[in-house]
Amino acid sequence: MAHQVNLEYLSRVVFEEKDLLFPDSVVGTDSHITMVNGLGILGWGVGGIETEAVMLGLPASLTLPEVVGCELTGSSNPFVTSIDVVLGITKHLRQVGVAGKFVEFFGSGVSQLSIVDRTTIANMCPEYGAILSFFPVDNVTLKHLEHTGFDKAKLKSMETYLKAVKLFRNDQDNSREPEYSQVIQINLNSIVPSVSGPKRPQDRVALTDMKSDFQACLNEKVGFKGFQIAAEKQNDIVSIHYEGSEYKLSHGSVVIAAVISCTNNCNPSVMLAAGLLAKKAVEAGLHVKPYIRTSLSPGSGMVTHYLSSSGVLPYLSKLGFEIVGYGCSTCVGNTAPLSEAVLNAVKQGDLVTCGVLSGNKNFEGRLCDCVRANYLASPPLVVAYAIAGTVNIDFQTEPLGTDATGRNIYLHDIWPSREEVHQIEEEHVVLSMFKALKEKTEMGNKRWNSLEVPDSVLFPWDLKSTYIRCPSFFDKLTKEPVALQPIENAHVLLYLGDSVTTDHISPAGSIARSSPAAKYLTNRGLTPREFNSYGARRGNDAVMTRGTFANIKLFNKFIGKPAPKTVHFPSGQTLDVFEAAELYQKEGIPLIILAGKKYGSGNSRDWAAKGPYLLGVKAVLAESYEKIHKDHLIGIGIAPLQFLPGENADSLGLSGRETFSLTFPEELSPGVTLNIKTSTGKVFSVIASFENDVEITLFKHGGLLNFVARKFS
């Protein structure tokens, strides 16, 4: 995974082979691959299914995208962190609309950004839908590479080459900027300290507006921001007893606080800022309430190294931020269970409690099914909100707490200055970090190299394992080509709205005790403590299929409220999605999904395509798609159908209770129009959302696996 490896260690920026120089580039399988664009290396991530296709001989296809120029001007104020810049740019680009496009940054403001700032911004491009966000090499890049140990002679050669081929950004001459398909402008002066939430990363809230915004969310009807709490219940307080003391919970109480550095907070400056703030807080006598589930998840051992060498790690520990591991943790739901006292209080008062984390995903229910409001914040703000114990606070006018003398301590009293952070960063990060990395690499990982590996051509499946098993994809493979089969009298499994994320489709978090996946594991002798998470069990298709559409926040219009349920129309029963799909498959009835705009947004998760495929879904009909997810659907053999512009299920008068039939022509072509006929006699046209011949080839073979079966048979 990209966030576990220092980019500078792997990157070359310019390759030299047999006296030939050419630019570095990368296509990877991790959503964090785009970070490398901050070093001036063109790179983007593709999904697992597409990657498997490349490994087996198919090219990775990409329709030539538009290139959007994003001009940065001005400079940010001293209280703005890199995450504030990231969230500000993310919101702006999301509003403008850059899905499926390349973004290139230019302008005087680019020179104000360090390399770690640039990689942080580039890393968030999946959140605003861009394929990649590119920062050309300039003097800032060269200086950074020199500090990280690049050979000076190679740097000189690199600079000469990039200038010769006009790939070097000259920050002194803005008159020769490239031509772009579109130009947008962002003034860094306009960006203020902020957080994002409570349910989506693009919903940015200025820190000064946080208290009023949260109160507005309580009032708003249930939606992307609202919780619709009755006015007379908004001030409810529930007392809890925890570790011998009494505490009070209310709407806005923080119950999860996670400092994470693997994604949009890979920037050392914000991690050090969190450590310095913790140090000042401890010295002022501030503390974090013990019932708050605090954690520290460094993106790599290097983060632990510089937090330790700078002396701030013990202070984070004193506030409860202990290192819990280096993999994906809180932001994918791998959070230690909240105490029973907290869980009971949340249920008793129907409280909107909060999680605050420095990750890049905060979809509702992702952290914990009982935590309804989740905010993305910079690491120092995560620590600050943990100390405050609530998001319902105005940091400008309300204190975090009091010191031993009873004096009020405000956020500005313990907020580290940019100069403090920069000094520690220079002393403890750049040179020492890369020296330690080099020494560690030269030593090698003896434990990894000593692992025993079975000597066999094929993987030896353990039939007793509940983590890894031979997937049922292979049960239906055919060696002979099969003509494209029509979809006849298909029922609608789910009728969904806009912005259905891959989290809704294939959750990665904890396995609910009443879910079909939990029943499967229980029947195999596991206790709830042993369930682990969907992310940990992605090697077991039986668990992942049962987890498909198992997100408790899934809003199916057939049900009318958030729940992982649907209607099995032949019987009229309301069932778990898996159970309904299982009945449909026994009856030989094909399935489709109706959806709105941006279907499949979020993480590039291949199980969000594999799961529906195993449920018997033959097609998805949506207003628009997130590109990577649409590629996954094609790769697994599910038809991505798109309503004509301006049309949707509502405008066509579809209830979702009809059955649907369509036939594919023998000669499919990109963007071909197909006719769908319903059981009510309605006929309407849709677009087969294929972009090129490679996608059509995969789909016509029934997906990647059938293609492989025929190629190697």
UniProtKB/TrEMBL annotation:
Read off the SUPFAM superfamilies from this record. Aconitase iron-sulfur domain, LeuD/IlvD-like
Say yes or no: keyword RNA-binding present.
yes
Spell out the protein name for this chain: Iron-responsive element-binding protein 2
Please verify whether the record's keywords include Transmembrane: no
What's the short name of a Pfam family annotated to this entry?
Aconitase_C
Task: Give residue ranges for domain Aconitase/3-isopropylmalate dehydratase large subunit alpha/beta/alpha.
Answer: 2-389
Q: What are the entry keywords?
A: 4Fe-4S, Cytoplasm, Iron, Iron-sulfur, Metal-binding, RNA-binding, Ubl conjugation
Which residue intervals define the domain Aconitase A/isopropylmalate dehydratase small subunit swivel in the entry?
518-644
Annotated Gene Ontology cellular components are: cytoplasm
GO function terms (MF aspect): 4 iron, 4 sulfur cluster binding; iron-responsive element binding; metal ion binding
GO terms, biological process: negative regulation of translation
Where in or outside the cell?
Cytoplasm
